[in-house]
Structures are given as structure tokens and as C-alpha cells.
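Session log. Operator J.P. requested a structure for one protein chain; no other inputs attached. Running the standard single-chain path with C-alpha cell output.
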Amino acid sequence: MKQPKVIFLDAVGTLFGVKGSVGEVYSYLASQVGVNCDASLLETLFYQQFKKAPPLAFPKVDVMEVSDLEYQWWYQVAYDTYKEAKVIDKFRDFDSFFQQLYDYFASPHPWFLYDDVFPALQYWQKQSIALGIISNFDSRIYEVLDIFGLTSFFQTITISSTTGIAKPNSDIFIEALEKHNCQPEETWHIGDSKKEDYQGAKSAGINAFLLQRNEKIDRSDYTIIDSMERLISN
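Structure written below.
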């Protein structure tokens, strides 16, 4: 494969993941304030509410407002998750609880780094390939990247909440490309979501690789890699 000028990567599910599951985290933290709920139920309900929610993107707002809007967005997802689990009334002070929940995901506790990340990033850095992140995440990504010592690898970080555009919309990929002043065909994008990452990147003309972390994927329609080391070896 021709060496790209820039490689863009997704964040959650590509660089780092949640230990266990989101449902387990939601269940554990709720139990710390005396609210018990099954982790598998919370996992199912969380993803239902997550998919129902509008994109985590806030177009045409002042940058100073973004942090509050991110917080409100996640508050609603969490509130609706516990409400659907029929335990919302068991919280004495849900607002205070949510503050702890929100801060928890900016700490090292819920996250783990995939084993292939450092070798791949170090290799591409040595090859003088510019690296960037394109993610439907919020501003806490900077804290998580610092936790794992990843910040210095990336020249650009493009996230949906501050750009006002969310993947798979091709405009977020185009905005990331403009930061590097390069053409789509000169870049790669690596991510674990068929729709948001692979199809979104392809719609912008970027060479896309679908990273198979957990779920089995129909290999006939996508350029699949089972680890980022696969790209290094080629």
C-alpha cells in the first residue's frame, strides 16, 4: 500500500475502550449511592438512549458554551437510561450523582488502551506520517489521551461537539483534511464503526479501514483489519 501523508483514527473503540461495559460502570457507580440495577439491563438501555439522542454536535454556538452543552447532552442520556430502568426515583440527588458519573469518564478508571495502539503510533511517527483523530466524542477526550500518554502523537484532534458536525457526515472528515492541507486520496482513516467511520470516511473520498475489535463483520463489503499492526506489517 502507498504510504499516506496523514492517518486519521477514531477514538473510543479504536484507540481505547471501556473496561467491561458501560452498563457495568453505570451499575457500579449507582450501587455506590445505594441504587441497584442489573448491568446488562443498563447496557441495553444505555445504547438505546444513546442511539435515540441527537448527534453530539452543537453547530453555530460559541465555543465557551460547548462544555455545558456536552454535559447536558450526557446528562439526558444517563437520566433516560436510569429512567427506563425504573430506578431514577431511587436516587436521592441525581444531579450530584451525574456529576460523579461524568467526571469518572474523564479519569483513568473506566478506560483501557488496546495493545496494538502504541506500536502502530510509534511506527507511523517514525515514518513521518502525520496523525489525527476524528471522533464523535466530547472535550474529555483530551484528558483521556493525556492519561494514556497519547497526546503527543497527534497533530490534530477533530471532535463532533466542537466542530458542530458528527460522523458519518462527510463534512467532519473534510474539516479534518483541511487542517492538514491534504487531499482525501492521500489519507487513511481507521475506525471500528461501519457507518460512522468506514462509510463516513469513504463518503469523503478517504481510504478507509474498518477495525474489527469485537463484533464479527461481513468482510465482503469492507476493507477489514483485525488490528492496526496489520497495516504496519503491510
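Operator note: The CA atoms of residues 66 and 162 lie 7 Å apart.
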